[in-house]
Amino acid sequence: KNQVEQSPQSLIILEGKNCTLQCNYTVSPFSNLRWYKQDTGRGPVSLTIMTFSENTKSNGRYTATLDADTKQSSLHITASQLSDSASYICVVSDRGSTLGRLYFGRGTQLTVWP
Amino acid sequence: EADIYQTPRYLVIGTGKKITLECSQTMGHDKMYWYQQDPGMELHLIHYSYGVNSTEKGDLSSESTVSRIRTEHFPLTLESARPSHTSQYLCASSENGSNEKLFFGSGTQLSVL
Known about the structure:
The structure holds two protein chains of two kinds. By secondary structure, chain A is mostly beta strands.
């Protein structure tokens, strides 16, 4: 069964600190992995998209890594800000399918305290 | 920023009412999607479209229907709303291609009393 599991479920950190969010997946065949940020009451916004051949991609203070062999990804946030408080969702697409075949994780709820 | 808009943002209605959730995008994307999301849960695809006059049901069974008469417009309709339909509904669009980015609207929070 294709699944995407994220950990931790929730996380509280102090402003300025770094943190790392985890994503494990069993989706096969693999096409790409995406990280989205979803603010409360808003739609998700894309942070990164990585294909099989990419093992790291950065977007400002966000750096995503991918190990396609172990089927794991992480999202590292550097020097956190209050505006980073949001749910971070890992999404995996299977190869050879339409875009409709996306597998969503339940997200990690990050809270940044001043 | 994404140019995809959903209305209304919030809707509270009584059981049995017919409702239409609006979604429009100005990016000229062929592909559009409707997702349903409950608090703390993953998004579930309920409908998608690859172009005008093309609509398909998604992974999650839904009593809603959609139409795609124009590229930019992808409304979702519930003929008779029930409390079980209470949820957040997210519309999205994307360009063609295998790694295309999804652009989401801000969502409609529906509450059926």
